[in-house]
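Before any further analysis, backbone shapes were mapped to integers, which produced the following:

***
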Amino acid sequence: MIFLVNLARVIFAPLLSEFVAVFGIGEGTAGLIATLAWLGSALPRLPTGWVLTRVPREHVVLVAGTVLTIAAVVTASATSVVLVGTGALLMGLSSGVYFVAANPLVSELYPERVGWALGTHGMVSQVAAVIAAPFVTLVLALFFDWRIVFVCIAAVAAVVTVVLFFVARATEIPHAGTDDRDLIGAIRTQWRVVLLGVAVIGTTGFVWQGLFNFYELYMGTKGLDGGTARNLLTVIFAAGVPAFFVSGRLVDQLPRVPYIIGIVAAFVVSVLALTAASGFVSILLLTGIIGYVIHSLFPAIDTYLLDTLPDDSRASAYAWYSAGMMAVQATGASAVGNLREAGLAYDVIFVGLALGLGGVVVGLTTLQRAGRIPQ
């Protein structure tokens, strides 16, 4: 299921150039489509947190699969850019519902190995990101119709949801979160932990969203042909597969806050290096580094949050974090698209974004050394 819901979010990136050609839209509108998918992922997270105070986590996961199936059908039947945007929003909704329910469930299924469990869970989602660009390329080559991409997603999502229903019925689910019944109380008591997560993932994700959604078009400005540029998306996501697994194990062993800050700092440096890079070999190397670094961050921050938050507020506080960070980062693609249409070069845009994120790293480091960040 996590494979499908993550595919639903990232599948729009390799399709942006297709939407530009088919619908005759600009990069700003194309970026808005990608933003809608991630904004949709943000919108249901807090309401889902409230639902989880009353409904078992596994039931909500099944709802996410049903929503994904319907959303993919809507997108596949779209005849205008407005309907494509609507489908993107709905597909994002399914992922938002899923992650808020599933991540706490996974951490409770493996309480002694939270980092490993979340790293493995995330690694599977990353495989979806890896195949997104090749999958789009294959479908376009065989059928010459982008809609087939969403037909396939709808069909598989329907089958997986049914299978998951029967698996959940046959599985003994832990009840660690049965006392988590106060959504407002959770943020009152855990706001420092939640704020740290939003500050780290929200700002870093904003830059990441703008970068990967326009990676194909950005690489075109560096002289790479369309096929090579699209395949670099595969590289950047493929590097994340081992990153999830390795980082999930490291965060169980290392001081978590310094480790997280170090990852964000490495991401800043690698993005700045990419803006100065020229030549295929150096771009390929930096693409792999960026992919590894950014995807190391996700299991690290999830482990910090879910292992720090107590049973009686874990899912509720995580919902606040999840909604906040996603709302911040979701606008990254739209912002980059609008800056591009305003006449700024991609290199200039990403230098500015990386330097801004560098300021966040400095602030977090200062707070950490002053002992102001919960450990």
Summary: The longest helix spans residues 183-213. The CA atoms of residues 130 and 238 lie 5 Å apart.
